[in-house]
Amino acid sequence: MKIPTLLQKGPVGRLLTNPLMQRVIRNSGYLFTGSALSAALSMVQGILAARLLGVESFGVLGIITVFVSVINRLTSFRMAELVVNYVGDFSEKGEKQRAAAAFKTAASFEMGSSILAFLLILGLAPYAATYLAQDSSLVGLFLLYGLIVPAHLVAESSTGLLQYLNQFRLLASIQVAQSVVTLLLIVSAFLAGGGLVAVLVAYLAGKVVWSLGITGAALVHAHRAWGSGWWRAPFSLIKIRRKEMMRFGISTNLTGTLTLLSRDSEILWLGALAGPTAAGFYKLSLAILNILLIPVQPLISTTYRELAREVGARAWDNVRYLLRSGSLIAAAYSIPAALFLMVLGPWVVSLWGAEFLPQSYVALIILLVGFTFINVFYWNRTTLLPFGLPEYPAKVTLVAAIAKVVAILILVPRYGAPGMAATLSGFFLFTGGVLVWKTARVLRQRAEAAPLPAAG
């Protein structure tokens, strides 16, 4: 990456010319471009959908999509991270057959978990329609959107492989394609005066395009990396690491499950405790927060890729530099963006419709506190994985999840969307703070125990 001479001096120059940060910035740039385009398209999608459906039906849309996502992720073992960690480890050692076997194992487990998730959706859809959307006639829509699960059969493993193989530009392109398909269908629904079914089909079509694109691309690149017979690599090749891989997967799944129940299922809690209208207010607040999240989210996967390599090499100075520099980059965007949303929030909310004021704006302000903090320390959970401490985030999340569920039961029935926002901000501040402290402590201990010079 060519850096202008003027920018090669001072702290900014050191950051931009460091090989580690160059790789992170370059790969994040690909994902950011895709994410920024997708965010712009998603904003238009959301505005059209909200104006077409109104607050209550917009909330029902959120309940359906979140319900399916939660069930799908409930059985997930976060295979993207497992693939990056173990396929990367075997590949760095030149063990191509073991790398192929690791990917095959991850994909096989994910396939089984996807089938289980789809069966759960079939069984739970009637209860979700009755108790979450508070309308039993909507069960068919839950089942319709549930079709994304078989389409996502091995999408997580495929994403992890493409990340490890440095195919971030391709990932970004597929993401944009998904958003384009969804937007075109929502525009058609808006012009035709369609309703909830038409909007749901648009979201479903976009998700299917993404998952099939990711899966197809991963299979092509697996063929290029390991040859045409890669899929015949026997599972026994990774027998020596099987328990370690299972521990990694179970720990990350437990963390993900706790996060789902306490954080990512909030629209479902709102639907059950305060009704679809409150869910609609909250869904809009989360949609607007994409302005804050989208530019930083690509840093998570790109930083993790480099972090796993530097921890494996015990290059502790590089690890420190990577985390510190990543936080500075995230803060340089997150803090001004948060101030922008605080000042111009009412105008931004009104783009979706005046009926969302003031509830969505109040929830947005509260959410900005926690989201800004977690944005700056975006690496707080994944950093402990390559250190061999996948259980620690699960333990911290468990404590926070219990406290958050209690807070939800107290605050949400009374305060609705703003009450839920308060519980999420508190969750982020606690978990993020503890994990950042733990990372700093472990890094200091490892560096003191086995110091090595930085690899550059």
Descriptive overview:
This protein has 456 residues and is mostly helical. The protein has one domain. It contains 18 helices and no strands. Helix 3 packs parallel to helix 7, helix 4 crosses helix 7 and helix 16 runs parallel beside helix 18. The longest helix is centred in the N-terminal third of the chain and has 56 residues. The radius of gyration is 22 Å and the shape is globular.
- Round the Cα radius of gyration to an integer and report it: 22 Å
Distance between the termini: 16 Å
Element string (H = helix, E = strand): HHHHHHHHHHHHHHHHHH
Q: Per DSSP, what share of the residues sits in E-state strands of 2 or more residues?
A: under 5%
The secondary structure category is mainly alpha
| Gross morphology | globular
Count of helical stretches: 18
How much helix is in the residues? over 70%
Q: Give me the count of strands.
A: 0
Largest sheet, described in full? none
How many structural domains?
1
Spans of 5+ residues with little confidence (pLDDT < 50)? 452-456
Mean pLDDT: 85
Task: Please sum up the structure shown.
The protein is an all-alpha fold and 456 residues long.
Please specify the SSE layout and strand pairing.
Layout: H1 10-17, H2 19-74, H3 79-92, H4 96-131, H5 139-145, H6 148-151, H7 155-164, H8 168-192, H9 196-226, H10 242-264, H11 266-273, H12 276-288, H13 290-293, H14 297-312, H15 316-352, H16 359-376, H17 391-415, H18 417-449
